[in-house]
Amino acid sequence: MVPGPHMQQPAALPSRDIWTAARRGDVDLLRVLIEEEKNDINQGDEDGSTPLHWAAYFDRLEAITYLLQRGANIDALNEKEAQTPLHWACIGKSLPSMLLLIKEGADITKSDKRGYDCLVHACQYGNVLMAHNLIVKQGLSVAHRDTEGHTPLHWAAYQNHESVARLLISLGADVRSVDDEGLTPMHWASLKGHFQMVQFLILNGGDVHAVDSDGYTPLDLAKQKNMKNTVSLLKYSQGYTSQSEARNWRTWFLMPWLLVPLLFFIIDTLPFLATVAVLAAIFIFIRRLISYMWLGKDTNNPFFMSVMAAAYALSTWVYFIKIFPVTNEYGMLTMFFVGVNFMWASLFLYLVRSDPGFLKLDEAGVEKIYNKLSLGAKKIPQLCPTCMIARPIRSKHCRSCNRCVARMDHHCAWLNNCVGVNNHQPFMVLLTLVILLHWIFAFFCVQLLGSLDGAPSIWAVHSAIHFYYSQEAMLLMLMLFHLFNALWEMYVFYQQWTLIFDNVTANEYLNGTKYPYFRDRENRFRNPFDKGWKGNLKDFLHPTLDYTDLFEAPDTHDSA
Fold first, then answer.
1. Cβ-contact 184, 210 below 8 angstroms
2. Nearest residue to 55 (alpha-carbon basis) of 40, 71, 38, 72
3. The domain containing residue 219 runs over which residues?
4. Within 10 Å of residue 292's Cβ, how many Cβ atoms?
5. Is 404 part of a structural domain of the chain?
6. Of 157, 189, 240, 284, which has fewest CB within 10 angstroms of its CB?
């Protein structure tokens, strides 16, 4: 097996010298060291890196400007890796420094001794906006190869930078390109066990059957490294084609409607223990299909939405056939139940088709980012490589919907839609209604089962289950189904309101460490949106910020 690609970062420096001054952006000290003490402005440290290298790496724009004015060599090569200050700006993800150096005439075509140009370095470290600028604005090629034949896409796959990979493929990168060892980007992603990257490459035309110069496929490499999830994914994707995805969508949508009659037949004909065993087997089988055979599980998948609709249809049929005729003594509750059903069904259909806060696709979106840079913006908006727009904070690109959503909370598989700034409130109403429906339906089931001749007490669980199953199997199973879902959805309800009162989205709660606006200058957690529980509730009901155009977190917030 070939060794992993090499990546180099600058080493540490002593506390006081010309390189430390450049690293810290201390222009006054640089003036003393260069103009008064006559230090060589192009002097290299122990690795041959000049002060300009260090200023570029740490994005010290004033220091860069001063050094260039004093005659610093803009294309100086360090001794260890033959890298220029421009390379170091890319390694340090210092986009403003990169743009400044290019504006001042840095040679963008240079590669270091390993053949890495600026684009390769940007892709190695996952900077999407930098990679976009280098390709679209500066004209670097997505097909560039280093000394071992790796393309920028190989690097994005190896380092698991999916956003960069999306950008590269959208700009023409060959997903099946091979390096000098015959390895494709999918080989490298499989070798590292990057499950989502492998999935992404498959969905975008990667070849799971590709063989390297040693005769190994991506599956072989994943097996060698014992990457179990990736191995399973590659096994089940052997016959995948882009045409199969549309076919799979229809299959997953129709499957629950076919399963409902099957489950009805099984419950109505088999003994209790046999039914439990068969249902468990079906559950495991479906879960396995969802986990591996549906390669587009991070794309639009209607299975769970269809499960919800089919279960509702079955419950409605059982209610009107078995329950409604014998619930005369619960007239008010029946009217309330029917009314809640109507509201729930209407709201469910609305939310399935609702706009959760999709950000507008703007052809000039990337230019807006560059305009902010030119105006000296301290915080650079993120670029979505799929939507090609500046992504506001608190937003997220949803792989399932394939759109960026403002104040994204989560993607709800049961709705096959996102929950965001525009539909979070009605989602909470829907959650309340469905919890009520579950409990009322379960109550009716208990009353009907308890009225059967010879029925034991429902608290005598073992004998009661066998008796009820022998008399009304479908009703019993539906009661258990609704009780389980009521408890689960109450937990979701509690979690949602807890986050709402803290003014944190579910996405932020799960991925908070990824978002710098939740950290202060000392890297301690802070929530810049927290206004106290009363203020947070008001903000949830009537947002005071325009989350479609919010690129910086508020510095202060009101207390409740």
1. yes
2. 72
3. 18-237
4. 17
5. no
6. 284
Tokens of 357: 């806060």
Count up the domains in the chain and report the number.
Answer: 1
User: At 412, which helix (H) or strand (E)?
Assistant: strand 410-412
pTM here is: 0.79
Closest residue by Cα to residue 465 from 454, 474, 476, 475:
476
Beta bridge partners, 325, equal none
In Å, how far are 272, 443, 448 from 334, measured between CA atoms? Answer: 30, 11, 14
Return the SS3 of 78: coil
DSSP tag of 382: E
Task: Identify the CATH number of the domain in which residue 198 sits.
Answer: 1.25.40.20
| Pair 320, 423: CB distance under 8 Å | no
Q: Name beta bridge partners: 384.
A: 389
Q: What's the rounded Cα separation, in Å, for the pair 428 and 502? A: 16
pLDDT, averaged per 10 consecutive residues of the chain (560 residues), comes to: 48 70 94 92 93 96 96 95 96 94 96 97 94 95 97 97 94 96 97 92 91 96 93 78 61 84 81 83 76 58 88 90 84 92 95 95 76 69 86 91 94 94 97 96 89 75 75 85 95 97 94 81 85 94 91 61
Question: Is 280 part of any domain?
Answer: no
For the chain, the straight-line distance linking the first and the last C-alpha, in angstroms and rounded, comes to: 60
In-domain check, residue 291: no
CA distance 511 to 496: 16
Per-residue three-class SS string for 239-306: CCCHHHHHHHHHHHHHHHHHHHHHHHHHHHHCCHHHHHHHHHHHHHHHHHHHHHHCHHHHCCCCHHHH
What string of DSSP letters covers 453-502?
A: TTPPPTTSHHHHHHHHHHHHHHHHHHHHHHHHHHHHHHHHHHHHHHHHHH
| Cβ atoms within 10 Å, residue 491 | 10
Considering the domain boundaries, does residue 367 fall inside one? no
d(CA 61, CA 100): 8
pLDDT at 281: 87
Q: How far apart are CA 103 and CA 94, in angstroms?
A: 14
The residue assigned the tokens 């009907």 is 448
